[in-house]
Amino acid sequence: MKASARNQFSGTIKEVIIGAVNAEVHVGLKGGETIVASITKESVENLAIETGKKVIALVKAPQVIVVTDFGGYRISARNQLEGTITDVKHGAVNTEVDIALPGGDKIAATVTNDSVETLGLRKGQTATAVFKAGAVILGVQS
Amino acid sequence: MKASARNQFSGTIKEVIIGAVNAEVHVGLKGGETIVASITKESVENLAIETGKKVIALVKAPQVIVVTDFGGYRISARNQLEGTITDVKHGAVNTEVDIALPGGDKIAATVTNDSVETLGLRKGQTATAVFKAGAVILGVQS
Amino acid sequence: MKASARNQFSGTIKEVIIGAVNAEVHVGLKGGETIVASITKESVENLAIETGKKVIALVKAPQVIVVTDFGGYRISARNQLEGTITDVKHGAVNTEVDIALPGGDKIAATVTNDSVETLGLRKGQTATAVFKAGAVILGVQS
User: Which residues form the Mop domain (chains A, B, C) (predicted)?
Assistant: First the structure.
């Protein structure tokens, strides 16, 4: 698929929890990490989303927060993937930060330049990519 | 309304599906396209959202993904509007892509420069603007 | 916590409404404003989210819309915080707008340069920071 979403993870559906309007889908990545997606119940039905199915999970880079120190906090975002910063590309206002996960996948986050300075983001640093389940779009082969 | 959301579509509510906490609202645009919004049940009540009502649907440009080739994939995002790219405005890290829909509406998407190169985005190209129902804010005249 | 989310509000949980998959959490800020967060039911359980608990609410700047004139419209976004613009930082494509709330908190929004011109955004102006409940991540001390 040719899509502008910087993050496109291949995985397998591990669990589907259906609500009245929305559903929560757990996707296992090849490296062992899990991505949680919140999609509508109608999409689950339309795409025949079910355990064992191969999917891709799309996440736009501006939806991803970079955390370098939780300072004793636990957070509600369902996706918290720790890795190592492999690239920091500066722009005029925003910067793209790339984080490599242990399992081989890579996540891109767009953050403001101020955040890069405040957090002292640099290549080689350990960081956690954080994004909500609602930021994830799922794709299946038709 | 004067708001910074680049996308402000005028439409009419065609359907409202209520869940325990959230609701799904279908908005028909003048050109025949439909936009699906996921808002809280409380907002449906506060704004008296109901079939037939005129609304505006607001979507921020960074929430929109541009897809040029689905490569056999179907995706969970409820909003997938195909059109023609009318403008590609480059910045240092990000680019704004404008897509004209057949019905006359226009959608702006903010994507990274890397995506513009990878997808070969250019004026005149056919592309699909993709965004989740959760990215849509509805406005009604009070 | 060291996180790239530009907006990190300290507050106290005032109300928790649980649905089948998602939950809505109301957080009172020290200045009297309320922030509404939509998180999954599982996060409510995992973080022991309950009335009276201290939390931080994280919101990324690209998720925030700036409204200067509602023009008679009421909108579905659960978070609408009015304040005064204290800074407008221009980039090549995007601009960061800072809005000070009456209670002392500050909100950063990333908007396009076109919006800055269209809305005539400037320091000292009254503006409302608008964001959906789904854009909010909650953090609790563990």
Answer: 2-68, 74-140
Secondary structure (H, E, C), B90-130: ECCCEEEEEEECCCCCEEEEEEEHHHHHHHCCCCCCEEEEE
Amino acid at A70: F
Closest chain A residue to the Cα of C54, Cα to Cα: A73
Instruction: Examine domains A7-59+132-139 and A61-131 and report if their fold is the same.
Output: yes
* B88 to B25, B64, B120: CA distances (angstroms): 31, 14, 11
The reported pLDDT for the residue numbered B59 is: 97
pLDDT digits (tens, 9 = 90+) for A84-126: 999 999 887 788 999 999 999 999 999 988 899 999 999 999 9
- Smallest Cβ–Cβ distance between B19 and the set C19, C69, C76 belongs to C19
Q: Does domain C7-59+132-139 have CATH number 2.40.50.100?
A: yes
Query: What CATH fold (topology level) applies to the domain A61-131?
Result: OB fold (Dihydrolipoamide Acetyltransferase, E2P) (2.40.50)
Task: State pLDDT tens for residues B75-103.
Answer: 999 999 999 999 999 887 788 999 999 99
Distance in Å, alpha carbon of C109 to nearest chain A alpha carbon? 11
**Domain extent listing, chain B:** 7-59+132-139, 61-131
Q: Please report the residues numbered 60 through 119 in chain C whose beta carbons come closer than 8 angstroms to any beta carbon of chain A.
A: 60-62, 89-96, 108, 110
* Å between C21 CA and nearest CA of chain B: 9
- Nearest CA of chain C to the CA of B6: how many Å? 7
ipTM: 0.91
> Which residues of C fall within a CB distance of 8 Å from A112?
4, 6, 61, 96, 108, 110
Please tell me the distance from the alpha carbon of residue A111 to that of residue C34, in angstroms, as a whole number: 25
